[in-house]
Amino acid sequence: MNDKPLLSITDIAKAFRKTPVLKGVDLELRSGQMLAVVGENGSGKSTLLKIVVGLLKADAGSFRIRGTMGYCPQESLVFDNLTVRENFQFFGKAYGLTDWQQSSDRLLERFQFAQYSDYLTSEVSGGTRQKLNLCLALMHDPDVLILDEPYSGFDWETYLHFWGLTKELLERGRGLLVVSHLIYDRDQFDGVHELVDGVLRCD
Question: How far apart are CA 49 and CA 146, in angstroms?
């Protein structure tokens, strides 16, 4: 069995206008692990997240992802002028999936919103949009799933489905990283790390 971490973050540093935000962040996420990064607003969580998903360049340090990554942002990335099904098709082709329809059918059934598959995304509820946002991050079965403030967008039904799916993903050796200012169900996590003064501390 390969014991190399799925995600390695090493000595990441970032400053804005000479003000340090990250001062040497280290983190390892391994197969079958779910970790959380928490911190107050302005602590640097979003900056770290943007670096890991490739939206921002670090000033120093490095990170490595082994395998594929799925990213579920706090603000949904769905296209309002497409139907729910067309969003799956668009992202499936972007991922290079030949079986995107099979994957979408499975997720629509799992999260119980197949009845909205032909609705324009602009016509569905916020809860359904967040289900779609999560499913688009999952449809290519990523090795590492990164979720930004998931609780703020999940309705109760999605929240329950999320924990059921989480258990299955971890049993299959996937790694999950949750970034949030507030963590519920702390006993579900293998580790909770707090970002304070630009460094991560194990809580």
Answer: 9
Residue 73, domain member (yes or no): no
**Cβ 151 vs Cβ 198: under 8 Å:** no
pLDDT at 2 over 80: no
Show the tokens assigned to 177. Answer: 């990283």
Longest alpha-carbon distance in the chain: 51
Q: What confidence tens digit (pLDDT) does each residue in 162-191 have? A: 888 999 999 999 999 999 887 878 888 999
d(CA 150, CA 37): 12
From residue 100, how far is each of 83, 104, 106, 134, 140 by CA, in Å?
A: 15, 6, 10, 15, 8
Contact predicate 199/25, CB 8 Å: yes
45-59: pLDDT as tens digits: 999 999 999 999 999
How far is 85 from 101, CA to CA, in rounded Å? Answer: 8
Distance between alpha carbon 203 and the CA centroid of its chain, in Å? Answer: 21
Mean pLDDT of 82-103: 96
Q: Domain of 28?
A: 1-67+177-203
Residue 153 included in any domain: no
pTM for the predicted model, two decimal places: 0.91
- CATH code, domain with 53: 3.40.50.300
